[in-house]
Amino acid sequence: MKVLVVGSGGREHAICWKLSKSAKVDKIYCAPGNAGIASVAECVDIKAMEFKKLVAFAKEKEIDLTVIGMDDPLVGGIVDEFEKEGLRVFGPRKNAAILEGSKAFSKDLMKKYNIPTAAYETFNSADAAKKYLEEEAEFPIVLKADGLALGKGVLICETKEEALTGVDELMLDKKFGSAGDRIVIEEFMTGREVSVLSFVDGKTIKIMASAQDHKRAKDNDEGLNTGGMGNFCPSPFYTDEVDDFCKKYVYQATVDAMAKEGREFKGVIFFGLMLTPKGPRVLEYNARFGDPEAQVVLPRMKNDIVDVFEACIDGTLDKIDLEFVDDACVCVVLASDGYPVSYEKGFEIKGMEKFEGKDDYILFHAGTKFNEEGKIVTNGGRVLGVTALGSSLKEARRKAYEATQWVEFENKYMRTDIAKAVENM
């Protein structure tokens, strides 16, 4: 098979890496890819939102399967464009990707079908939002931009003053562009966060391993929200009891709700869960693999990923048994100092060769490129995902942090507490 992956981050590197392990795949292309992806795929200079060029490339190269990694093209309808041309593509159509594309839509869906989530209100005007905050809201409270905001459009506001300022940032200052034209204001929930990825074929859902992200930029969950500073898998907080509850009230209920709305979902649904004192609640949905969740879940997956992708497309997922190794996995993100606000790029990265030939250590590239001299340099806020497998979370964490010292670049920054709270569990 010839496979095309659309995207350029650590998630797409993880997908390409997993595809490279498939006996069914002869050639992998990635558009636009990055310097690390170039080690397992041929990178193509087409951007993820250039749908016509991507379709033309897939037809020219007789691509057998295209995998969409990123949220923007999915929400924009790239799957519909590929299907119109009779091309096989993995990912939800535009009318299903709205599950991630609109927070208001997903909250309304959960309310309509009794899927447990936080209480909320939706607002199209800053004045109405502020009136609600002044007269009815309880604090702390959460403000969410309705649209896509690179995983950063969520503000946790401790006071009324913070919330009023947050409304201005989202709706008037357009901190996240048009994503803030409409906002959701919702109840602040307490508890442990858990990420659960799943494969869906429109009717059947198969759950992957649980994981836990670290969204804040600095240790002890301080600093600004980022796209994710590290991850571990599995989560010891995702118990059999939690799994049973979510299978009964969340997972299949979401797939069935989308089908009833005429929005058949095929692809990956990412469930962001909060394990509250009152039970699990859905924080958010994503319509694709998480990043860096993909970097800790896919290395533990035993299945040939091509079989799973094709089963999702063909509606035969019920015939697939997902299997995962017993080992735990930890990913520590090496970022550019100053991320997620401002940072410098273009610094040479050294030491990456130390990962070669080590099956239990993987270096996933997120923000890298080749410079004019052919050297790999930093090209983003999140640069690399240093990933390690171990017999326990404690061992995987030790190995991941050991490996972070193998790589050097100017302005290198990382959190030092990824998975620290669970290493002895």
Q: How would you explain this protein's 3D organization?
A:
By secondary structure, the chain is α+β, with helices and mostly antiparallel strands. It folds into 4 domains: 2-93, Rossmann fold (3-Layer(aba) Sandwich); 125-181, ATP-grasp fold, A domain (Dna Ligase, domain 1); 192-319, ATP-grasp fold, B domain (D-amino Acid Aminotransferase, Chain A, domain 1, 2-Layer Sandwich); 328-422, Glycinamide Ribonucleotide Synthetase, Chain A, domain 4 (Alpha-Beta Complex). Helix content is 29%, strand content 28%. The protein is built from 12 helices and 22 strands. It has helices at residues 10-20, 51-60, 71-76, 78-84, 94-101, 103-112, 126-135, 160-172, 240-260, 293-297, 305-314, 393-404, and strands at 2-7, 27-32, 42-43, 65-68, 89-90, 120-123, 141-145, 154-157, 183-187, 192-201, 205-213, 216-218, 222-225, 230-233, 266-276, 279-286, 328-336, 361-365, 368-370, 376-378, 382-390, 412-413. The strands form 5 sheets. Strands 10, 11, 14, 15, 16, 17, 18, 21 and 22 form a 9-stranded antiparallel β-sheet that branches. A hairpin with a 3-residue loop joins strand 12 (216-218) and strand 13 (222-225). Helix 7 (126-135) packs antiparallel against helix 8. It is globular and about 60 Å long. The model has no long low-confidence stretch (mean pLDDT 96).
Identify the notable features of this structure and list them briefly:
Dna Ligase, domain 1; Rossmann fold; five-stranded parallel β-sheet; alpha+beta; 22 strands; 425 residues; 12 helices; metal ion binding; nine-stranded antiparallel β-sheet; metal-binding; D-amino Acid Aminotransferase, Chain A, domain 1; ligase
